[in-house]
Write a structure and sequence with these properties.
Layout lengths: L1 E4 L47 E4 L6 E5 L11 E5 L2 E4 L2 E2 L5 E5 L11 E5 L2 E2 L39 E11 L8 E10 L6 E7 L6 E2 L5 E2 L9 E2 L7 H9 L3 E5 L2 H4 L10 H20 L6 H4 L4 E11 L1 H14 L17 E7 L14 E6 L12 H4 L11 E6 L45 H20 L24 E6 L3 E5 L5 E4 L2 E4 L33 E7 L6 E5 L10 E7 L7 E9 L4 E9 L14 E6 L1 H5 L7 E8 L4 E11 L12 E5 L1 E5 L5 E5 L2 E5 L3 E8 L6 E8 L9 E5 L8 E11 L2 E2 L3 E7 L7 E7 L1 E3 L4 E7 L6 E9 L14 H8 L16 E6 L5 E6 L11 E7 L12 E7 L3
Parallel strand pairs: 12-16, 12-17, 17-18, 18-19, 19-20, 33-41, 34-42, 44-50
Antiparallel strand pairs: 1-46, 2-3, 3-7, 4-5, 4-8, 6-7, 8-9, 10-11, 11-16, 13-14, 13-15, 20-21, 22-32, 23-26, 24-25, 25-32, 26-31, 27-30, 27-32, 28-29, 28-31, 33-36, 35-39, 37-38, 37-40, 40-42, 43-45, 45-48, 46-47, 46-49, 49-50
Helix pairs in contact: 1-7, 3-5
């Protein structure tokens, strides 16, 4: 196997193969750890790469491959490869559930040191990837939060209607970017005897395995192979549908296996495809409402749907999909990317997002939302869905309520019965992986905080119904269940459900994201590689949903105020660049994080105006959530104080210049996310006319000569002007530079030129990536794109020349590998040891024992032929721009008299298997006596 690689590979045993100074070759060390498997076990080894990793293929087919010793379930979080903290890319999953392959360009291969596999920030590779931090194996069981008082209205109680259930199955559809057609299949649950037009709730499941054999394995194929059946993930929300239908809603849950089986190629993880599918179903429902006789039986027998009152409910990637559908219904996407091209004949009143992915971190600010965050989510474990709340701040008018609903002890899968063991038709599992050797105090089954599947699903159904009642029915009596008021819905008992929110009746804001100064505390960054800058350093026990990472190692403008004190009474002051108005508000709502498993943190809250008048509004108590190393429990609690003391003190609430937090406990830590003036009520929401930005991708060939300039394709549509933050990724380093850009429809405000220099040297494709985020009065559709420059030169061939192929024991065997032409990349070849054809074979006692041990972990004892040493191979690398490299095998002199002994290594193929008839490195060692 000949491979192409740039320099920078590091590992325990590094191959030293230099063209100028030949030294001994070493193979990769043997595997270790329960979740890794060796490259040798896969049929190959990649020198300095860690166990389980290898590089395969040639030219454009070159891939970085990782194989897990345990199967990795198909889920919603993206599996990602990292090198030294830098995102390399998102690999293609293999059908075996163990193997992941990433096409390598020369930029991403510049350094493969510090390789890691992550999903939603959680490591999947290496020994102890899921183990707790040292010293924390025995953690006391966590206590659930105190039970909140009951809300006056409980939306989890069934309504007066009986329900009817049926299905429809329409012709499949083709969606852009997906080679195979996608099913148009759904299950409908509707109220019986309801009169008039009824609101419509549409459910979209997330990314799960697509096909299964009865009493057998699951796969991610599409279409499903013969002998397998589609997994009916869309049937997993019947409990939620029946509750809503009993309350008078027509409900439909749509199937999306066809997207799940193909979305790994999509740059946005399939969000646009899911949006297209949702809107294709809505268009059918709009047509059926207008012409009932054309509807399927199950729809015709149900009350007519009112498409002016639509609620979208999405789980995991389905959550991101319905968010995009809400966006696309207000701000049309580029026609070439969209699978629906008809009129919008519906109005989306709100969305419910259950454990959603947020790859684009592009929420729709003017559509109300409730995001359910499962405290024991083992799939989207960083709870990145929090960004559907935090990411709306300052983007539009701020009238829409955006709620985060934190369900303590809930996992990712059990909101869907078809993903729940014992209830699903196909094999299913608890996504929070339970290691019996490392009991998790919060999420292991049987703990006080972990919910059973039935209790979790009941809580989910209750809060879906709460969102429907507020967003669609306009019943403000349920708002306290979603807006951080600190009440509960008894139907969700015994689940502990906590909420906070932005938008709705909130005015004015202290936002650390904007221009502010801080004294007594620290303005910290949500995402930054520097521990001194980041809000949560590497020593934190768990992670924060508010600080969930995006595509870049550093983000500008996502900040919080960090407080740390060792004595009570030292205030932290936050001063915005311009005065904040709390006019019309009757209270102040703050969102504050304290460390998990802490209680009783006390803070005095004060404000001051431009004239220097100051008032203490009150004292708040903050308790942390139950947490462990494996949970995202650094989550903000909503705290409220009245503004009446400021009015009595004469503070001008229209010109507030400072917010002050004074700790009243002896020591502690806290993080201020934001603070708002608030008043009760849910204002009417009207979507603003905003510009929409979509980044495209252009693929070009480098050419043989000259310099050509290409530009990243950018489309700005819609109305008005807005501000976005543009990130341009350096293909050589992976680092990103950013700038604030004002955009207008039809303009060319985002201009990213890419210069491409042609040559005739072999290299790899190079991706020049661009990312964009909304800052103010803008909407982001396709958030990433760029220019991909394809190599168009042939791969050089090589020849092998023995330099010392017949030596006396104690002298090294030596060979030279020579390329037919220099390349822009490091060119590497892997030669696996083989039995010799005839005569005695060189043994483990004939080579340097240190070399053998460092190369393979093997001992010379018992003496055996080298071809029986597992994983022994020679990795030969020719640096970029050079023509040759040398490789050696050190031998040792012994005291015995021996015949001539030989060794043989053969070039391996893309899978690490020796090629039949492939080039060989052969050598003979003569006795020195």
């Amino acid at each position: 196997m000949i491979r192409v690689r740039r320099t920078g590979v590091t590992a325990v045993a590094v191959l030293a193969l230099l063209s100028a100074a030949p030294v001994s070759a070493q193979a990769a060390p043997p595997p270790s750890g329960p979740r890794a498997s060796s490259a040798a076990a896969d049929g190959g080894s990649d020198g300095g790469l860690p166990p389980g990793w290898r590089v395969t293929g040639e030219g454009a087919a070159r891939q970085l491959v990782w194989r897990s010793g345990a199967p990795v379930p198909m889920g919603d979080a993206r599996v990602e490869f990292y090198a030294g903290g830098r995102l390399l890319g998102r690999p293609q999953p293999g059908r075996d559930g163990h193997t992941f392959r990433l096409a390598l360009d020369r930029a991403r291969a510049d350094s493969l040191g510090g390789l890691q596999v992550r999903a939603s920030g959680r490591r999947l590779d290496g020994p102890g990837a899921t183990d707790p931090a040292p010293g924390r194996n025995s953690v006391a069981a966590a206590a659930p939060p105190a039970r909140l008082p009951a809300n006056g209205v409980d939306p989890g109680r069934p309504g007066p209607y009986r329900t009817a259930t049926g299905e429809y199955h329409l012709d499949s559809v083709r969606l852009p970017g997906l080679p195979a057609p996608v099913e148009m299949r759904a299950v409908v649950v509707a109220p019986r005897g309801a009169t008039g037009r009824r609101p419509l709730a549409l459910f979209l499941h997330g990314r799960h395995a697509t096909c299964y054999k009865p009493h057998g394995a699951v796969t991610g194929d599409w279409p499903c192979p013969s002998g397998t059946r589609p997994i009916p993930s869309h049937m997993g929300y019947l409990r939620d549908q029946r509750l809503l239908a009993s309350q008078g809603y027509v409900t439909v849950s749509i199937a999306a296996d066809g997207i799940n089986g193909q979305d790994w190629t999509a740059e946005d993880g399939g969000a646009q495809a899911r949006s297209s599918l949702v809107r294709l179903h809505l268009a059918r429902w709009a047509g059926w409402a207008a012409r009932p006789a054309s509807a399927p039986d199950v729809v015709r027998e149900a009350p007519r749907a009112d498409l002016s009152r639509v609620l979208l409910v999405g789980h995991s990637r389905g959550g991101e999909g319905v968010n995009r559908a809400a966006m696309d219904s207000l701000y049309p996407p580029p026609a070439g990317q969209d699978g629906y091209h008809g009129p919008v004949r519906w109005h989306i009143r709100g969305t419910v997002l259950i454990g959603p992915t947020a790859f684009g971190q592009n929420p729709v600010a003017d559509v109300p939302s409730a995001t359910i965050l499962p405290g024991c989510d083992g799939d989207v474990s960083d709870l990145q869905g929090e960004l559907y709340v935090d990411g709306t701040r300052g983007v539009s008018r701020g009238a829409a309520l955006h709620s985060a609903v934190y369900v303590v002890g809930a996992n990712h899968n059990f909101f869907n019965t078809e993903w729940t063991p014992g209830r699903a038709q196909a094999p299913a599992e608890d996504d929070f992986w339970n290691d019996p050797g490392h009991h998790d105090p919060v999420c292991s089954p049987g703990t006080r905080t972990r919910l059973t599947a039935d209790r979790q699903h009941r809580a989910g159904a209750t809060y879906i119904a709460a969102a429907a009642r507020l967003f669609v029915a306009g019943d403000d009596r349920v708002r306290p269940l979603l807006d951080g008021s600190g009440v509960r819905a008894p139907s969700a008992d015994p689940a502990r459900v906590l909420t906070h929110a932005v938008g709705a009746g909130r005015t004015g804001a202290f936002l650390p994201d904007g221009p502010v100064s801080v004294t007594g505390g620290r303005l910290c960054s949500a995402v930054d590689p520097s521990p001194s800058v980041a809000c949560l350093g590497p020593g934190a026990r768990g992670v924060s949903p508010h600080f969930a990472p995006w595509e870049t190692a550093r983000e500008t403008g996502r900040r919080a105020v960090a407080l740390r004190w060792s004595a009570a009474g030292s205030p932290v002051r936050v001063r915005p660049a311009a005065p904040v108005s709390f006019g019309g508000a009757d209270g102040l709502a703050l969102r504050v994080i304290v460390p998990p498993d802490t209680s009783g943190t006390l803070l005095d809250v004060s404000v001051a105006d431009a004239s220097g008048r100051r008032a203490t509004l009150g004292r708040v108590r903050v308790d942390g959530l139950p947490g462990s190393e494996r949970t995202a429990s650094y989550w903000a609690r909503e705290l409220r104080v009245p503004l009446a003391p400021a009015v009595r003190a004469g503070v001008d609430l229209r010109r507030v210049t400072a917010l002050e937090l004074t700790p009243r406990t002896r020591s502690g830590r806290a993080w201020l996310i934001d603070a708002w003036g608030r008043r009760p009520g849910t204002p009417a929401v009207r979507a603003a006319a905003l510009p929409r930005i979509d980044i495209g991708r252009l693929t070009v060939e480098e050419g043989d000569s000259g310099v050509r300039t290409y530009r990243v394709p950018v489309r700005v549509s819609g109305h008005g002007s807005g501000q976005v933050r543009l990130y341009v990724v350096d293909p050589a380093t992976g680092g990103a530079t950013d700038r604030l850009v004002t955009v207008r429809p039809g303009g060319h405000d985002i201009d990213v030129p890419v210069k491409v220099e042609g040559n005739t040297r072999f290299g790899q494709d190079v991706s020049h990536d661009v990312l964009v985020k909304a800052v103010h009065t803008a909407v982001i559709g396709s958030y990433r794109g760029g220019v991909t420059v394809g190599n168009d030169d042939p791969r050089p061939t090589f020849t092998v020349t023995p330099l010392a192929g017949r030596v006396t024991e104690g002298q090294p065997l030596k060979w030279r590998l020579t390329l037919s032409a220099a390349a822009d990349q490091e060119m590497s070849a892997l030669f696996a040891v083989q039995p010799v054809v005839r005569g005695p074979e060189l043994s483990t006692k004939d080579v340097d024992p240190r070399w053998l041990r460092e190369s393979t972990g093997a001992s010379p004892d018992p003496e055996r032929p080298l071809s029986r040493v597992k994983g022994l191979s020679l990795w030969v690398s020719v640096p970029a721009g050079r023509l040759s490299a040398e490789v050696t095998v050190p031998t040792v002199r012994d005291r015995g008299v021996e015949p001539a002994e030989s060794v043989r290594f053969r070039l391996t193929d893309d899978e690490g298997r020796p090629q039949d008839g492939g080039p060989e490195l052969t050598g003979t060692v003569l006795d020195a006596s």
